[in-house]
Amino acid sequence: MPCNKRFRIWANLACASTLLLKSFSAGITYAADGKEGVAVGTQYDTAHVYMTPSTIDAFIASFTATFGGHTVSPIVTNVLPVPSKESFQAVYTPSGNLSVFAFQTPVPYPFGQERGGYLVTDMDQAVKEARRAGAEVIVEPFKDAIGRDAVIQWPGGMKMQLYWHTTAPSFPALQAVPDTRVYVSTDRADEFVRDFDKFAYGRVIADDRSADAGEIGRPRETYRRIRIESAFGKMLVMATDGHLPYPFGYEQTGYEVDDLTATLAKAKAAGVEVLSEPYHAGNRNTVIVEFPGGYIAEIHASSAH
């Protein structure tokens, strides 16, 4: 059976041996200054979610009930460079896509610490540019059944996985691009932003040194909030003193929705727990929630909604 271009690249690993090398030239993205980058598109960036085998089904059902979308059938395989066994499931929603892993063996270090996976046009070039920009490669490129992967780490400790497919996938654009939420110390914030922007050809669209810290559980205080956009998507950088009340700092992704009240109603009906009550700051309303299985996320909507 041939591989479905849109949704079986990840799921049908059995098809991988029949795939032929295909150019990514049509997917190359450009920064505002016209330079080429290695990003392919925001619909190919996935939050990495690690679940236990007993909770993965409940989590996926709850997540799709909240945001819509669908999933593909799970496969049990090894997607790492060392021996392991895990169930993998891809989840596609209009608000952001997920790669969900349920390991049947212990999770090898440092996997499980990365915020997400980012599709690149050329793995060797991506690793070269990441190093040049100031990242360290903590997992050297390795082959999987459908391409190559690597894990890099930025100043301040933020980890991300880069991946490349032997045959380029084709996914529909997202209706709303989620925020990758990154907490860094005030000591490393400037270095992180400078280095990541250099790699991603990104641009800082806002740098508020007196943002309302009620967004991170500390009302009547301020903190530094930096918003970055690039072909890899949106990033929200929070430079703090580390005095973070629970659950702030545990969420890795912020999902944008049209109607926060309606989304929370669907989420609660699907077993989602609200960890922080909705808070209005700037131009958005924001809330932190926990899905079955322990996945913590932020959800926000424009204050106009």
**Overall average pLDDT:** 89
Biggest sheet character:
9 strands, mixed
Distance between the amino and carboxyl termini: 45 Å
What is the number of independent domains? 2
SS-derived structural category = mainly beta
The dominant shape is globular
Poorly predicted ranges: 1-34
Describe the structure in your own words.
The chain has helices at 56-67, 123-133, 189-200, 260-269; strands spanning 46-51, 70-71, 75-77, 86-92, 97-103, 116-119, 136-144, 147-153, 159-165, 179-185, 203-212, 222-230, 233-240, 253-256, 273-281, 284-290, 296-302. The radius of gyration is 19 Å and the shape is globular. It is built from four helices and 17 strands. It is mainly β and 305 residues long. The N and C termini lie far apart (45 Å).
Short characterization:
With 305 residues, the protein is mostly beta strands.
What attributes does this structure have?
2,3-Dihydroxybiphenyl 1,2-Dioxygenase, domain 1, 305 residues, globular
Write the layout of secondary structure elements.
Layout (H helix, E strand, L loop, with lengths): L45 E6 L4 H12 L2 E2 L3 E3 L8 E7 L4 E7 L12 E4 L3 H11 L2 E9 L2 E7 L5 E7 L13 E7 L3 H12 L2 E10 L9 E9 L2 E8 L12 E4 L3 H10 L3 E9 L2 E7 L5 E7 L3
Parallel strand pairs: 1-5, 6-9, 10-13, 14-17
Antiparallel strand pairs: 1-6, 2-4, 3-4, 4-5, 7-8, 8-9, 10-14, 11-12, 12-13, 15-16, 16-17
Helix pairs in contact: 1-4, 2-3
